[in-house]
Queue: 2 jobs
Job 1
Amino acid sequence: MIVMGISKILSSIIFGGSAVCISCGRKLRRERFSMIDGSVGICSECFKTLKFTKRGSSFAADGPITYLLSPLEYNGAAENILRAFKFRSDFKNGDIINTIIKEFLEGYPQLHAFDRIIPVPLSEERLNERGYNQSELIAIGISEALSVPVDTDTLIRIRNTVRQSSLPAMERAENVKGAFLAQGKLSGERIILVDDIYTTGSTMKNCAKALIEIDAAEIVGFSAATKIRKESPLLI
Ligand SMILES: [Zn+2]
């Protein structure tokens, strides 16, 4: 279902000239691509490496997170697209991710009942350096699909941390411990906590703990892609 939908969106093929694959960077004739907006595309070989997770399933998550939803596995083209979005300000890639997420969310109508969408915050220093928070842009896409508001005020990062991806799994938990603070009250609210990638879960777990401290009733995790392997049926 999801793949069919995405193919439909990506299939306005334009003939003639050449284009660059957003994932592998190869320049190919446009007819070999699935094009987006007539200017960028993903080649058929990279498209094949996009691994969509099973619809109607969730992933086990750590700490107070009830479960994790994630449309993509973090490897192949998904890894390339998310890296370009995160580190090279490639917003076209962000659009692609949000297109995939919006289709995915059609299978989870129960999320409309949630109260807020909270993205994992960056430190002020990192935000100034990068100019945007990729998780916030993903959260905005989710908000458009679910009509649930995005909240970027409640959860803040109180200290800068070493980039999680640069650390071995064992050190990641320590790196983000106590890095987040939640302000105000979320009395009985249900929260969708958003990050771009879920790997060890340390970041989201620490964010969720902070939200529980100000009385959030339930936290569901959402990441564009995940490395978690343990898939479980969605029991709602
Ligand atoms: Zn490619």
Job 2
Amino acid sequence: MRTADTAGLIDRLGRLIGRPGLVVDREDLQRYAGEPRGRYRELPLAVLRPASTQEVAAVVMLCREHGVPIVPQGGNTGLVGGQSVRRPGREVVLSLERMREVRSLDAEGASMVVEAGCPLATAQFAAESAGLLLPMSLASEGTATVGGIIATNAGGHLTVRYGNMRRQVLGLEVVLADGRVLDGLTALRKDNSGYDLNQLFIGSEGTLGIVTAASLDLVSSPRQSMTAFIGVRDLAATLTLLRLIRRQLGETVSALELMPRLALDFVLEELPDAHDPLVRPHPWYLLLQADTAVAGDWLRGACARAIESAGEEGVAADAVVAGNDTQAQSLWRLRESIPPAQKRGGVSLKHDISVPVAAIPGFVAETCSALERRVPGIRPCVFGHVGDGNLHFNLSQPEGMAADDFRALEPDCNRIVFDAVQRYRGSIAAEHGIGQLRAAELAGRTDAVRLELMRRLKSALDPEGLFNPGKILAEADTEDGACG
Ligand SMILES: Cc1cc2nc3c(=O)[nH]c(=O)nc-3n(C[C@H](O)[C@H](O)[C@H](O)COP(=O)(O)OP(=O)(O)OC[C@H]3O[C@@H](n4cnc5c(N)ncnc54)[C@H](O)[C@@H]3O)c2cc1C
């Protein structure tokens, strides 16, 4: 964009959305530029904070007229740089943070309409107040927004039972690249009247439209809950354990989280008040949660019996079942603390991947051996949502190796991990998305037909490349590139 136009655009935006809606001060822009992993920090030209769907539509039209690309942003908790500017001073961030209302909640119909900038925790609380559950939970839920969670089709530890965010969305309100509003805020569970347009925007990471509100499906709140921490000797036994637990506890199973001993060691070092829940160390651990909306007092007994039979079959080495909410929370704290605690192990190269559940033992063994051959002493810290086949395949630096030397090996490690993922027909981006971090990887590894369809969708919905250029589809991959 020409410099002369910049002042004109800022001036017009100021008149449109007023002072609270426009951030241009360099210091204030920093807050929207950093992101959780500190990889991206370019400053936008400005941050636009519209307060209504109409204002979003109006700023989109204005930016389009001036040829300035828009980077949508929710809670800025994304881990792949989708919400971050790529070209400093040449793109604007459109933050949904002033659109955070719960517009309505229908307790009888078990649904709610929420604005995109509403933090997930606020939406969860509103549902809970009506005796309902919004079945989506992640460690970033205090800050991550409903719009961001939809745009990334986030998953969390409840995915194994309720699916990713896609499953909770009944309808969407979206501002399109030409400024028109697609009003799809229905609460219908059945609607086969043509293509399901919601699905285009869910998981599109802000590249096809700006989600301004969503109608969400709710379920009954749990009335019994149970959490257990189980020690396991290896991954093959873990899979047998999963099968056994699912057979005995059926649809009450709502979380199945895997962690290795290395992760527990990091966490126990990080949290001085925490302790190992089991007497002896085990190579792997499974964190199990089961819930039911059916009243009664039978779930804990059923879980204890399932774990007991797993012990008898030799697939559970030891276990503890939480006796109350506080104990359950301490077990969950061990799992949630892995990402920050990993810093104890120095640099961590992170891969958010998935493979078919049955392939996990072979995939992990094969990939870890290949990594050890390339980087002797490398410490894989593989944890995650094992029930969905989603592993955070993180690699801690070898003890004694310099941080920069290990960072320099990142391309080699990525190649080893992603080649193996491809061989096992897995995904290089299981839940965090592609953003800018994995855009080149996607371009290089995706089937040509799939890539071509994605490009066509992008150019049909956003022909001028206004929304989030260079995200998902690497710049060379978009037909038009950015409009600015
Ligand atoms: C501690 C921690 C734990 C996490 N755990 C998980 C986890 O378990 N599972 C998981 O899936 N992710 C997890 N994440 C990643 C992150 O929280 C999710 O991706 C989340 O969905 C991002 O929401 P957000 O509001 O912060 O979006 P942002 O980070 O602001 O944006 C993410 C992407 O969505 C786009 N976007 C945001 N809002 C809109 C909108 N209204 N319309 C269109 N596009 C939009 C952005 O352009 C960007 O591409 C975690 C992150 C942290 C820091």
